[in-house]
Amino acid sequence: MLVLAIVAVVFFLLPLVGLLARTPWGELGSLLASDVVVDALVISLVASVAAVVLSALLGVPLAWLLARVAFTGRAFVRGLVLLPLVLPPIVGGAALLFALGRRGVIGEPLYEATGLVLPFSIWGVIIAVTFVSMPFLVITVEAALLNVDTRYEGAAASLGASRWTVFRRVTLPMIGPSLLAGFVLTWARAIGEFGATVAFAGNLQGTTQTLPLAVFVSLESDRDTAIAISLILVAISLTVLIGLRDRWLTR
Amino acid sequence: MSGLVANLKAIRPTGFQVDVDIEIRPGTTVALLGPNGAGKSTIVEVLAGLLAIEDGSVVLDERILDSPSDDLLVPPEDRKIGVVFQEYLLFPHMTVLENVAFGLRNKGSSKESATAGASEWLEKLGISPLAGQRANDLSGGEAQRVALARALCPSPDLLLLDEPMSALDATTRVQVRRELADALEAFAGPRLLITHDPTEAFLLADDIYVMEDGKISQRGSAEEIRLRPRTSYAADLAGANLFRGVAEGGLIQVDGHELHSANSSASGEVLATLHPRAISVHRERPEGSPRNVWATELTRIEHYGDRVRLQTGPPLVMTAEITPDAVRTLELSTGTTVWVSIKATEIGVEEG
Asked: Which end of chain A is more exposed for a tag (fewer CB within 10 A), N or C?
């Protein structure tokens, strides 16, 4: 048992060691300053932050609906939210293309009416990334809402608070820590998104190429750049882990 | 009539049904007294507007709050009912002052005037020093006062107290009960106290509704319920004999009669409690150690299944409980002269 457990630990540790061993530390500065890296970093940051904002705007109300309102079809909606978690991201991206692409079910009338083309633009990246990462926020916030004692909301209502005031001044602050954890999870998932983005938004440097896409491309042509970008992503992952350590690492 | 008039039938999602009539005049306190599962919290939810009724109406100061036949249902936030919730439910992320100011803020007061109004209430209840504390750092007694201030601050039309003392330990309870009595007295509107504790109901309410299985099984003053319980549950509730008296060195003077208690530290105004089963009944003067022994006449005998309640006459009107067998063996009937004996340790003493 113990030996197998140690093998498992080594299995998790090895890739990290490999990455660090191959890192060209001396050139790291210039590698990170290259156009490919900077472009990808900017696009990744813009898209992931936008995904968090969109998720907050749409995902929190959805979580509230799922946790607080008993409606027919609730199980169906919950399943729909979970779908992007289990669906291969590249399939999600392809499905987005068929729906919102220039020839898509909604994309085509949208293009004819406004001239807007979503795929292969930064909007495409944002949509793909949000599609894949929002479920993390919805399930975290829904679980937190189910944990809040609803009697507090009743108490607030008895003190004259409208539904919105109850939510803003009582419910939200009470789920604060979970909300924050949900944002971080969503953001981390958004930063690492690959499949849906490449299918829906393509891989155009300076327009839609995110950090993971840049890693994929440079693995073929320029290994040192791939390593440099990978290090950025490892650093981000570690930061998230440390940020959420109370939630996951301590028991 | 002004005050609360509720004739209601409500059904919980679980199918449990509650069917009661409650009337509370302004300036009076009604206690809804019943065991767990009697439907007391359903009444709280109905009055607070968290559960709509099926039939009947809820009217507060001639304003209809809920009436299915008129298709009227006022939502909780527009009801003006001040509730002290079971376990208080103070908002844990707010300070004491913010908790108390919450209601005024919702009425549209500016932050300054809400804070000023809340501070006034903290002052009134003697808890100004707590203003800046987080609500979940408070002791039970403090939390109770903050909950009271929070409920009263927006000037509600009805004050509703849901098991306000169940979260407190026994020593705090005596002190808090006195404060609660003052707060109830100071509130001019109708007051409703929900409780499972007969002492609380007897001491704080003008009128007691005994609730069992979703229905009111008896209604009356504390005295009526204590001396003439109509159901075996009410008889149990009425359980404790309560006497007000003056204590000094283990002796309690009650209406000119002297009771010996094992508690020699209590002094001044006290409340003595005595369980009916702690009273022994004899036909001859008993031998032995009991400190309290006297002769009296039985004024009433009531049978409740496997037990019998006896009421004794002067010098101290008490209720005693014995088995039907004992009644037969002792050949007891109304008017029989008996000797009662009570051990000093059986007499509970609370200052108050």
From this structure: C
CATH of domain A31-248: 1.10.3720.10
CATH code assigned at B178:
3.40.50.300
Q: Give me the CATH number covering residue B265.
A: 2.40.50.100
> What is d(CA A167, CA A156) in angstroms, rounded to the nearest whole number?
9
- Terminal Cα distance for chain A, rounded: 22
Give how far A240 is from chain B: nearest CA, Å.
Answer: 25
Which residues in chain A have their CB less than 8 angstroms from residue B48's CB? 154, 157-158
For tokens 């004024």, what's the residue?
B299
Residues B257 and B335 in one domain: yes
Mutate to test the interface with B, among A158, A165, A170, A174 (most CBs of B within 10 A): A158
**B99 Cα to chain A: minimum distance (Å):** 10
Query: How confident is residue B235, by pLDDT bands cut at 50, 70 and 90?
Result: low
**pLDDT per residue over B176-187, tens digit each?**
888 888 888 889
Number of domains in chain B: 2
Residue span of the structural domain in which B216 resides: 4-228
Together in a domain, B75 and B213: yes
ipTM tops the 0.95 cut: no
B119 part of a folded domain: yes
Please, which residues have CB within 8 angstroms of residue B55's CB and are 6 or more apart in sequence? B8, B9, B68, B69
- In angstroms, the separation between the Cα of residue A185 and the nearest Cα of chain B is 24
Contact residues on chain A for B106, CB-CB shorter than 8 A: 159-162, 165
The alpha carbon torsion through A39, A40, A42, A47 (nearest 10 deg) reads: 140
Per-residue pLDDT tens digits for B309-344: 888 888 788 888 888 887 778 777 777 788 888 887
Class of residue A8 by CB neighbours under 10 A (exposed 0-12, middle 13-18, buried 19+)? exposed
Q: Is A160–B91 a contact, with Cβ atoms under 8 angstroms apart?
A: no
pTM over 0.80: no
Q: Is the same domain home to B28 and B74?
A: yes
Q: Are residues B205 and B151 in the same domain?
A: yes
E strand segments, A172-224: none
Are B103 and A160 within 8 A, CB to CB?
Answer: yes
Domain boundary among B205, B228, B251: B228
Of B45, B50, B107, the CB nearest to A160: B107
Place of tokens 């479920």: A135
pLDDT of residue A145: 94
| Subunit contact A158:B81, Cβ cutoff 8 A | yes
